[in-house]
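User: My instructor asked us to take a sequence, write out its structure as tokens, and then describe one feature of it. I'm not sure where to start. Here is the sequence I was given:
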Amino acid sequence: MPPVHGPAYPPNVRLAWAYAAGEDAVSPHSTGLDRSFKVGEGVAGRVVAHAEAFRTGDYLADGRFEHNEVSDELVRITGFNSVLSAPLRGEAGPLGALTVSSRRVEAYDDAQAGLLQALADQAAIAIQNARLIAEPNRSRSELTRRADAQQALREIGARITAIREPGPLLQQVVDAARRLVGGDGSILDLVNPDANEVRWTYDSGVRAGFSSEEIAQLTIPIGVGATGIAVAEGRVIAASDDLRVHFPPSQINDRFFGMTGYRSMIIAPITGESGPLGALEVYSKRPGAFDDEDAAVIRTLASQAAIAITNTHLIQELERSQATVEA
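Assistant: Let's start with the prediction itself. The structure tokens for your sequence are:
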């Protein structure tokens, strides 16, 4: 799939270091190698320009991004080979980038990329919260909702690295999705790669109205309907009013929207570095119920669900490998 580009930035927009950790990152402040650079230059600049995470295992030899003379010199001095960067995803586009570096070649993998993106998402929420607090016309209820969202994301993030079975955490994600944006129901679908479709797996506030047979029928092919398109194209889809027009016509889809009365939705893809994993959907009976801030929260929850699923797969693979070695 081609990269999803972020918003177009004017040529005079530049990135500058704000915070650093580690001796090799802090020392460039005294050498002038931390000067600002254009959006699009270097790994961090590429991340902001494309609004997606990126990593390289051999920085100086990698031709997939635009090199900058000063950044290249910094890499030569520090001996960094591997660089991993994730965008600080704001409501109107990236706010910056969170970047880590290592002297080891090919130091970072899919799981670490997902974890860094989750940290970047939480940093972006913190930045936006600070800006909201600085605006006197923002209501107390909006600030409370933002604080609630940040706390929920921290709690989920704290559990991710230790889980062996993702079910309870994914249920926590789907419950949080419904609560944090004031929805009436939410569903978490997982990809069935054998059938090239997504299947309703977890929900909050929806299941009681349907039989297990009906739920089993509510599958959507990848690339078809709003959910299938969100998964196939890796983008958030929001809609209001008659939601049935965004899904393939069928008796079970008509029954779903007729039974629930849903008039607004947000669907965020759950995507790992190796491809689609599922989708997180949240619904409301009110038309026009959700805004861009709500979509950003659901997108971040979907990112954390992706990390949970990926980490579980990695742990299972490690355990299988260990069992093989022992045998």
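For the description part of your assignment, you could build on this observation: Residues 28 and 34 are 6 Å apart (CA to CA). Try explaining in your own words what that tells you about the chain.
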